[in-house]
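Quick illustration, no need to memorize.
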Amino acid sequence: MVKRHTDEKWILLYVERWLTAPFQIEDGTLIPRSSGTPQGGVISPVLANLFLHYSFDDFMVKEFSSIPWVRYADDGVTHCVSLKQAKYLQQRLIERFAVFGLELNLEKTKIVYCKDDDRKGNYEYTSFDFLGYTFRPRYAKNRYGKFFTNFLPAIGEKAKKAIQKEIRGWKLQLKSDKSLNDIANMFNKQIQGWINYYTHFYKSAIYDVLRYINRCLVKWVRRKYKKRNSRTRAENWLGEVAKRDKKLFAHWKFGILPAAG
């Protein structure tokens, strides 16, 4: 028992040192801190999760056990059965967070109407983003081939723009010293990761992002081969390669091939 209390004492001491350690900026200047966790600090996500576990998770389990919810870091979603219930929960969360010195960000916290074929009303908000996905009304097809409106997730526009920005950062057109196999080996794991994560729901929404990779590869072909410096010739050559070796790139294997003449 004595050892346990000693361990807890040391843990609390280290946590306190983390929380009160000054923040050093790029020029070496030390900025003292009196509250909060350091932005980007290795312990900050751990402490934030512990804090939110007791201020939010535990509260939802004990006070609103009938309401489904999910939380990732400081982003969460609850699913209420009515507008009245949603407003009541929002007010209770505002009060709950205030007890812990927190404020609910009301600009980002919205009550969203999950519109579909069974819920045809009109409300201010009918979509929301969570973990890179956008949840909103979308056309779906049932097992009988009939189309209907369902409330479904798909890769969000913010996630698409972030992925395309990262692809631009690869600067494929400047890697003319590399072979096509080299480029595939360099980036396939990243491409496969996007495919794995964003194709669980409404996978067609990511097709245009994967086609963007093909367009960047065409630019690489035009820079590397003088005889294929026109876009048409480059596209045709890359398309023929893809037909012969569909497993070379992760998105080719997935079915997003460059066009071949």
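Residues 163 and 194 are 9 Å apart (CA to CA).
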